[in-house]
Design brief:
about 600 residues; Nuclear Transport Factor 2, Chain: A; TIM Barrel; 5-stranded parallel beta sheet; carboxy-lyase activity; Amidohydro-rel
Length: about 600
C-alpha cells in the first residue's frame, strides 16, 4: 500500500455513534515496536541504527517527514535529520499517550503524544501527532518496519525553540489527551471546501478529547459528513486536509472549543502597580513571577492556550489598572497608553487574541470617547473596568448614578459588552474593614462584596431600565449574587417595591435573563456551576480562566471533568457558543 492510495466512500466503515465505537487492541508486535522506536528516538548518537533498524530499504516506498521539513525517501536523509535534530539537545523524552489502529488497514496507526527536551539550556514540552504505515510483509513476519512516518508539530513552541524556521507556513497542532485518525477522513477532506481560510492553517488538525459530539452535530446539521464508527468517544481526531491553507470551520470549532474572557495582562510601565496588588493575595509573596506572566502575551500564555485547547483569549488590563489613578488627566493618559500597547499585541495574532478597552472612569465623556476610539479605530470588543474609579480625597465613582447615563448610551450604541471586574480595597474601606483582616482581601471575600454591591446598585437604580440593551459581564460565577438570588428577589419584590423604595421596573431574574452574563473565571466548582445554571440558565454562563491569577491546568482540566455531568449541548454553550453570540467576531 502506498501513502497516496485513496479509498472510495463505499470502502469506509458504516456511520455510527461515537459512543458505540472502540479501537481494536494494538497487536503486541506493533506495541513492542512503538515502545522500542521511541526509546531509540530518545537515545543520542545512534543515528545509523535508527535508520537501519526501523525503516524499510525500498526507497520507492519510503517516506519520512517531521513537521514542515521536506519529506525524504533516503536513508541518508533520515540520518541527517537525526543528527540535526540532536544539535544542542542534552535530553529528550517522548511519551506516547495513544496508539490507534486504522479501522480498515491493519498496517497503519495514528499516534498522539508529548515530548520534552532540553536544548541549549532551556526546556520545552509540547504535543505531537504521528502517523505510521508499516511494510505489510515485515508486519506479517512479526518484525515490523516503517514504510511511512509523518509527525505534526505545534508551530508556536517549535518555532520559538528554534526547531523550524520562524517564517515557515506550518500548521498549528493542538493534540488532545488522545488522538485517533484514519483514511476515512480523507474522503471528507476531498469533498469539503471552505469559503474562507480557517484560523489554524495546516495539514493536520487535532481535536480536543471532548469535542466528538459537537463535531458530529455540526457536521450533521451541515449535511456534509457522516461520523464513522471507528471514532473513539473519548478521543480526538486527525484530518489530512486536501488544501494545506484551508480547514473547515466545523473542524476548527471541534478542535479548540474554549474561549476565555477574563484573562489579565499588564504593560511594563505599570508593573510595580500590579506587583503591589498581587502581594495582597497572590501566593508567591513578592508577586514577581505573577507580574512577569502579566506582560507576556505570545510566549508562555499562547503555549498554554495551545496545550489546553483555548482557541481565543480576550485580554484585559489587570487590577487595579486605570481605576487606581485618582487624577483624571493621568488616568486618561494611562488608559490610552494601555490600549495602544495591547492593540499592538493583538495585531500580532488577531486569530487568537482580542481586547477589552481600559477606561478612565473619572467622567462619562472621557470614558465614552476612549471606548468609542478603541471600538471604532482599534477593533476592541468591549470594555473591562476594575470596579469603582478612585477619585481625589478618597472618594470613588459609582456608575449606577444618572450622570453616567450618557456613558451607558455610548456602550449600547456601540453594541459591546461591559465587564465589571473587582479591585482590591484601598483608603478608608481598607482601613475600616480589611486592615486587620488581610486574608479576606481578593477572591476570598472583598472582590465579590464590592462588585455585587455595584451591580445590584445598577439594578435597583434603574440603569437597565433606562438602557434595556446594555450587556454586563461579571466574573467568578456571579460574584455571590446567584446564591442569594431568591432572598434578594424576595425582599426587592415583596418588601421594597410595595414601599416604593426601588425604581427597578423588572425582577432581578429578568435582568439576569436579559442583560447580565457570568463567567467561570476562578470558580471551578461543579456543584456551584450546576446551581448557577439552575438559577440563571445555561445561556448566561461563559467559560473563563482568570489567568495568571488562576492556572490554565486547573480551569481546563476541571472543564473536562464536566463531560457526562452536563449535556454536550450545554458544554458547547459554556465553552464557546454563548461567547460567540455575545462577541460576533468570534464566530469566524
Amino acid at each position: 500500500m502506498t501513502t497516496d492510495q485513496h479509498h472510495d466512500e463505499s470502502e469506509l466503515p458504516p456511520a455510527g455513534n461515537p459512543a458505540d465505537a472502540s479501537n481494536k487492541d494494538v497487536p503486541p508486535a506493533i506495541a513492542a515496536f512503538v515502545e522500542s522506536f521511541y526509546k531509540i528516538s530518545d537515545t543520542p548518537d545512534v543515528h545509523e541504527q535508527y535508520a537501519d533498524d526501523y525503516y524499510i530499504d525500498d526507497e520507492s516506498r519510503l517516506s519520512f517527514q517531521i513537521g514542515p521539513m521536506q519529506p525524504t525517501n533516503k536513508r541518508d536523509g533520515i540520518v541527517a535529520w537525526r543528527q540535526k535534530g540532536w544539535e544542542g539537545v542534552t535530553r529528550r523524552k517522548h511519551v506516547v499517550n495513544g496508539v490507534f489502529i486504522s479501522p480498515k488497514w491493519e498496517n497503519e496507526i495514528m499516534l498522539d503524544g508529548t515530548v520534552e527536551m532540553d536544548k541549549n539550556g532551556s526546556t520545552l514540552r509540547f504535543n505531537w501527532a504521528g502517523r505510521m504505515v508499516f511494510d505489510q510483509k515485515s508486519l506479517d513476519d512479526g518484525s515490523p518496519k516503517i514504510e511511512t512516518y509523518k509527525v505534526w508539530l505545534p508551530h508556536t513552541e517549535v518555532t520559538a525553540f528554534g526547531l523550524i524556521p520562524t517564517d515557515h507556513p506550518v500548521g498549528r497542532l493542538v493534540a488532545g489527551p488522545t488522538l485517533v485518525g484514519h483514511r476515512a477522513f480523507r474522503s471528507f477532506a476531498r469533498r469539503t471546501r471552505c469559503a474562507e481560510p480557517g484560523p489554524f492553517p495546516g495539514e493536520c488538525v487535532a481535536a480536543k478529547a471532548n469535542a466528538t459530539h459537537l463535531f458530529n452535530e455540526r457536521i450533521k446539521r451541515r449535511g456534509q459528513f457522516r461520523l464513522h464508527s471507528s471514532f473513539e468517544e473519548s478521543s480526538a481526531f486527525a484530518i489530512r486536509a486536501s488544501r494545506p491553507d484551508q480547514l473547515c470551520e466545523a473542524i476548527i470549532v471541534a478542535k479548540m472549543s474554549l474561549i476565555a474572557l477574563e484573562e489579565a495582562f499588564n504593560i511594563p510601565s505599570l508593573a510595580e502597580q500590579s506587583a503591589y496588588q498581587a502581594r495582597l493575595f497572590v501566593a508567591d509573596g513578592n508577586g514577581q513571577a505573577h507580574a512577569d506572566r502579566l506582560v507576556d502575551i505570545h510566549g508562555e500564555r499562547l503555549a498554554k492556550m495551545d496545550q489546553h485547547g483555548v482557541a481565543h483569549t480576550i485580554l484585559s488590563l489587570t487590577a487595579p489598572g486605570i481605576q487606581d489613578f485618582d487624577e483624571p488627566k493621568a488616568a486618561a493618559a494611562a488608559a490610552k497608553e494601555v490600549n495602544d500597547w495591547v492593540h499592538q499585541q493583538v495585531q500580532q495574532n488577531p486569530k487568537r487574541f482580542s481586547a477589552f478597552a481600559s477606561l478612565s472612569m473619572h467622567n462619562p465623556k472621557d470614558a465614552s470617547d476612549e471606548l468609542r476610539r478603541c471600538v471604532k479605530e482599534l477593533g476592541f470588543v468591549g470594555a473591562l473596568v476594575n470596579d469603582n474609579q478612585r477619585l481625589p480625597n478618597d472618594e470613588a465613582a459609582w456608575y449606577d448614578q444618572p450622570e453616567w447615563d450618557s456613558f451607558w448610551t455610548t456602550v449600547t450604541e456601540l453594541d459591546v459588552p461591559f465587564y465589571l471586574h473587582p479591585i482590591a480595597p484601598k483608603g478608608e474601606i481598607h482601613r475600616r474593614i480589611y486592615k486587620d483582616r488581610a486574608a479576606l482581601i481578593g477572591p476570598v471575600l472583598s472582590f465579590a462584596n464590592n462588585v455585587s454591591a455595584h451591580l445590584l446598585g445598577m439594578i435597583v437604580n434603574g440603569v437597565f431600565d433606562r438602557h434595556p440593551k446594555l450587556k454586563i459581564i461579571v466574573g467568578h460565577l456571579g460574584e455571590h449574587i446567584p446564591f442569594d438570588l431568591w432572598r434578594i428577589n424576595h425582599w426587592l419584590e415583596d418588601v421594597h417595591k410595595p414601599r416604593g423604595a426601588v425604581s427597578m421596573q423588572k425582577t432581578i431574574r429578568d435582568y439576569f435573563n436579559e442583560n447580565i452574563w457570568v463567567t467561570t473565571s476562578g470558580h471551578f466548582s461543579t456543584l456551584t456551576l450546576k446551581y448557577v445554571q439552575d438559577e440563571i440558565g445555561i445561556d448566561r454562563i461563559l467559560f473563563s480562566i482568570d489567568y495568571p491569577y488562576e492556572k490554565f491546568e486547573d480551569a481546563c482540566n476541571w472543564f473536562k471533568t464536566l463531560d457526562g455531568k452536563f449535556s454536550a449541548e450545554d458544554l458547547a454553550k459554556i465553552s464557546h457558543e454563548n461567547s460567540q453570540k455575545l462577541f460576533p467576531h468570534l464566530r469566524s
